[in-house]
Amino acid sequence: MRWPLFLAADVVLVVVFAGTGRVSHGEDLTGVFTTAWPFLVGTLIGWAVSRGSRSPAALWPTGVLVWLSAEVVGMLLRAVTGQGTAVSFVIVSLVVLGIFLLGYRLVVRAVGRARGR
């Protein structure tokens, strides 16, 4: 069962995203969960909607739905809890989460194909 590893990777990458953002803005890492939790909720919703355990390495539907859910749900939760949703942050988070959540799936796919040859 590989899906727990992919779920864990998604969670870790969302936390890395939040931590990197905090550090880049001169904030300490003690508040990383405050930054990460909305995106983590979105990640878990994306896993549920995409039925990620069936095809955890797939770009579609798992990767794309996890990525977009992390972004959309994350931003909605940030908005309703009074956290920032500046347009620049929305753009940066969309790009970085996309690179993180889709990027490693692309690497896994490439490695799998290379091994098959």
Describe this structure in words.
The chain has 117 residues and is mainly α. Helix content is 79%, strand content 0%. It has four helices and no strands. The protein has helices at 3-24, 32-50, 59-80, 87-116. The longest helix is centred in the last third of the chain and has 30 residues, at 87-116. The mean pLDDT is 95.
Give keywords.
globular, single chain, mainly alpha, 117 residues
List the helices and strands and how they pair.
Layout (H helix, E strand, L loop, with lengths): L2 H22 L7 H19 L8 H22 L6 H30 L1
Helix pairs in contact: 1-2, 1-4, 2-3, 3-4
Outline of this structure?
The protein has 117 residues and is an all-alpha fold.
pLDDT averaged residue by residue? 95
Query: Which secondary-structure class do the elements indicate?
Result: mainly alpha
Low-pLDDT sequence parts: none
Q: Percentage of helical residues?
A: over 70%
Form type: globular
How large is the share of residues in beta strands? under 5%
User: How would a crystallographer describe the biggest sheet?
Assistant: none
Order of helices and strands: HHHH
Distance between the ends:
24 Å
Rg for CA atoms: 14 Å
User: What's the total count of β strands?
Assistant: 0
In DSSP terms (H or I, runs of 4 or more residues), the helix count works out at 4
